[in-house]
Structure formats: structure tokens, C-alpha cells
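Good morning N.,

You mentioned wanting to compare the apo and holo forms, so I went ahead and generated the holo version with S-adenosylmethionine. This is what I fed in:
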Amino acid sequence: MTRLKPILNADMDCQLLYVCESQKSQVESLKSLIAEYKLSIILHTELLTDKLTQKRRQQLTTLVTHPILLLDDKNKLSWLSDGLSVAPEWDKLQRRVVSAGRKSELLLQAAKITADSHIIDATAGFGHDSLILASTGAHVVMLEQQPLMALLLLAEQQRMSTLPNWQKLMSRLHIINTDALSYFESFNKNPSADSSQLIDVVYLDPMFPDDSYQDSKTGKGAKVGKHMQALHQLARPPTLDEEQQLLQSAQSVVSQRGQKQGRVIVKRPQFAPLLAHREPSESWSNEAVRFDGYFF
Ligand SMILES: C[S@@+](CC[C@H](N)C(=O)[O-])C[C@H]1O[C@@H](n2cnc3c(N)ncnc32)[C@H](O)[C@@H]1O
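and this is what came out, ligand included:
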């Protein structure tokens, strides 16, 4: 796998390919998102003159000097990277979102949220878990440190907000391009006087080494999917020190609820060690994943 240059504080050069002239306004709207959300991305746009066949798309994924985004004829924004084409594709989760409940979703068993809950998904990624959390009626603040991922999320939220069936759910998602640790720090320094803004659940799904999704002895467990493979080029797993800080500051965020119990839920591959080596209050697992719950 080719790792892209990590983006720290520098702006990231990104090439945006679009397939027809009529998409100019869509391209402008992506530029507006970058400006409005102050994403550190420099977008170079280019009209794709040849036909976008599967083969051509595959070829484009092998150009890895800088990230390539593709706006297809359905205005879906994908990231082409190292042989992969990935996009949030929230519409593909429709069935899961519609039928999501504590029986069908382990995450909802662990998070125990209600329609009026407020959640921070501190590691939003492609936003799939945020959608499941928001399917309950809860409000979800989605933190994502990588500007490229934040742009994919914002563009997807914009696209899905045009679909009547999704508008309510979309309005409950609030995407922020930031590092979770700095967000938690300012949250904990400036506690809200408004009790409706208190956070019931912080959800953490940090990166994990790409060889650790299966049990090293039995080989059992989930294979890493293409979304996760792509993410491994942009983001790295936290160090032990960062894991400790994440858990500690997430704990402080949910502890602001006074008498009411708050939860930090951590997603791990089924056989992965505990985050920050810390024993959870309770765990839920299936053959692929484990959710460790810390109650405060
Ligand atoms: C494993 S993925 C999360 C996948 C996500 N749960 C989903 O459903 O698509 C981890 C994501 O968290 C982001 N991330 C990791 N550490 C972060 C941090 N400290 N602050 C904000 N985002 C972070 C990474 O850039 C990556 O996109």
C-alpha cells in the first residue's frame, strides 16, 4: 500500500475531476464548502475529457502523488486512491438506518441512547456509525481530523439533504473538521450552561494497525474493508499516550452531566486489546467487532 504524505498543518493539494461541463455549479459548491469550513485543501479542478469507464476509473486510482477526488455524473464525490474508489455512500445504508434498533445494531445496545440524546462521534471517518447513532433521533456532532475526509462528509451531507426522506436525519448531523483532543479540551474548559447541550455519549473508533483486524492465532475476525484500507493511507493509529488522553478527555466530557450517567463507547476489532489498556464497565461483541462501554 502506498501511504500518502501525512497532512498535518500544511494545505493538501487535491485534484478534483468532474465529468461534464454542467457540473460547474457543483464544483463551485465544493469550493464553497472548503472555504466555509476552512478546510486546508487546495483544490485543482479538471474536466475529464475521456469517458469514465470502469477501466478508466481504475487507472485513475493508481495516481497517488496527491489525492484525487472524482465527481461522477450523479454528483457523487469519491476519493480515488491506490487501487480503490471510496465514498461515504450514505444511501447504501438506508435499510440499516430505517430498521436500526438495539436488536439489530450492537452499537445502539452499547450506547443506549434516546431520541433526545446528544452524542459526539469523535472519529467520524466515513460517517457510517454516526448515521446509525442519528437514526434514533439523537443529535450527533461528528469530529474528523482529516480535511479530505471532512470534505467527503460535508459533500455527502449536502447531497443527501436534497432527498426528502433523509432531510430530518441530515439536520441532526453537525460535521466539524478538527482534532478530537483539541475539541474536548475547549469543551471541558468552557462547559455549557445550557443543559440541553450536555453530552450523553462520546463514541470513539480510532484507527487500528491494519494487520490487527484478525486474531493472530486463529486468523478469525473481520477482514479490513476497502473504506478502512483507504483510511490507512491518511490516518494512523493513536499512540498509547494519545489513547489515554482520548479516553480521559472523553470521560471529562460525559462527566459534566452531574448525577446522570454518561457513556464513552469504544469500537475495536473483536480481538483487539483494550483502548489505553483500560478495563471497560461492559462489552458487547459479535464475530467482527467489539464495543467497550465506559460508564461515568
Ligand atoms: C476507523 S475510522 C472511523 C470510521 C467510522 N466509525 C465510520 O463509521 O466510518 C477513524 C477516523 O477517525 C479519524 N480520527 C482519528 N483520530 C482522530 C482525532 N484525534 N480527531 C478526529 N478524528 C480522528 C481518522 O482520520 C479516521 O477518519
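The chain has a mean pLDDT of 89.

Happy to go through it together on a call whenever suits you.

Best,
F.
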